[in-house]
Amino acid sequence: MKKKYTQGHTVMHALRAVRTRYMKLICFACIAAFVSGCSINESKTTSNSSNAKNNKQIVPSGHLEGSTDEDEITSEASGVHQDEITSEAPGSNDSQTEENSGQNTITVQEKPTAQPEEKEIKSATGYVLDQIGNIVYVDLENAGGRTYPEEGDDRSVAFDITNATITQEPDAIDGTLNSNPIRNGVTVDILYYVEGNANIVTTIHSDNDEKEPINYVSIGFVNRVEENKVTLDITEGDQSGTMAVFDFSSSMDSIYDIAVNDKISITYYVEGGDNMVMSYYRPES
Fold first, then answer.
1. Whether 124 contacts 155, CB under 8 Å
2. Helix (H) or strand (E) segment spanning residue 24
3. Contact yes or no for 271/213 (Cβ under 8 A)
4. For every one of its 285 residues, what pLDDT tens digit does the chain have, with 9 covering 90 and above?
5. CB neighbours (10 Å) of residue 202?
6. Please, are residues 143 and 156 in contact by the beta-carbon 8 Å criterion?
7. 229-237 and 122-132 strand pairing
8. Contacts with 250 (C-beta within 8 Å, 6 or more apart), sequence order
9. CA-wise closest residue to 137 among 121, 151, 156, 161
10. Which pairing describes strands 274-281 and 243-247: parallel, antiparallel, or unpaired?
11. Structure pTM?
12. b/e map of 254-267 (b: 16 or more CB within 10 Å)?
């Protein structure tokens, strides 16, 4: 028996058919989208793999494979977008090159050259009291003849003439030069500098004129006579009130006619602490 369809059943059947076709279309669309998505992912995977290989090629040739710097660049490539790696890698290489250049540069500072210390040159004029070796003893207060026995001995100043230039005035009479221009009694002009506690002479000039010894006169009674010396008990003149010994070794007078208790007058000069007799006589009582 055939079913009879009303107009309402016909409408319902049509709607069901439309819905069935719509669902099929949705299923086909989902399948197509899925397939397309898989294809896109494969393309991205292939692209990333290719870029990773390209990233290794942009590592500076100066870095050996397996070095620390290459490891760092490869590590950064795996976690950063490929475009960022491509743009940053050259700059990083320049930075490393500059850093290495700074490390390999050695700055050598020249050691300051020690300048020789300039010596302060001083000048002095004095009377030569004595000379022992290369040391000259000079009285700087009185450059002329002595005014009393042993003047200047208590204030003598030592000068080292080891490396000094020595000059002298020619003899006033015959113009000759003395073989010993620096000797007792002459006046000298000195240029020197102080080093430590020593006066180092650079130049010394002698007037080549021995000042005559100052003559002294002492009167007294002979206390003792022995060899070339006489001991005198002085009562008048220089060194009065003292007893002194007089050396006759340089005198033209004979000592043999002098006796103890004789009253005599002695003219002498002082040299090295010794009273050197020039002459004597017996004064009237």
1. no
2. helix 7-57
3. yes
4. 444 545 555 666 666 766 676 677 776 666 766 666 655 555 555 555 545 444 444 444 444 444 444 444 444 444 444 444 444 444 445 545 444 545 566 666 666 676 667 889 999 999 999 999 999 999 999 999 887 767 899 999 999 999 999 999 998 888 899 999 999 999 999 999 999 999 999 999 999 999 877 788 999 999 999 989 999 999 999 999 999 999 999 888 888 889 999 999 999 988 778 898 989 999 986
5. 15
6. no
7. unpaired
8. 276, 277, 278
9. 156
10. parallel
11. 0.44
12. ebeebeeeebbbbe
Give the DSSP H/E element, type plus range, for residue 76: helix 68-79
The beta-strand segments (E) located in the chain are: 122-132, 135-139, 157-160, 165-168, 187-195, 198-206, 216-226, 229-237, 243-247, 263-271, 274-281
Type of residue found at 165:
T
The token duo for 119 is 């010596």
CA-based nearest residue to 139, from 149, 151, 147, 148: 151
Instruction: Judge contact between 65 and 97, C-beta under 8 A.
Output: no
| Residue 17 DSSP label | H
- Tokens 């990083």 belong to which residue? 92
Phi first, then psi, for residue 203 (nearest 5°) are -145, 135
What's the confidence (pLDDT) of residue 82? Answer: 46
Task: Transcribe 122-146 into DSSP letters.
Answer: EEEEEEEEEEETTEEEEESS--S--
Asked if 229 and 251 count as a contact pair (C-beta separation under 8 A), the reply is no
Token pair recorded at residue 128: 């030569």
Say how far apart CA 217 and CA 266 lie, in whole Å: 6
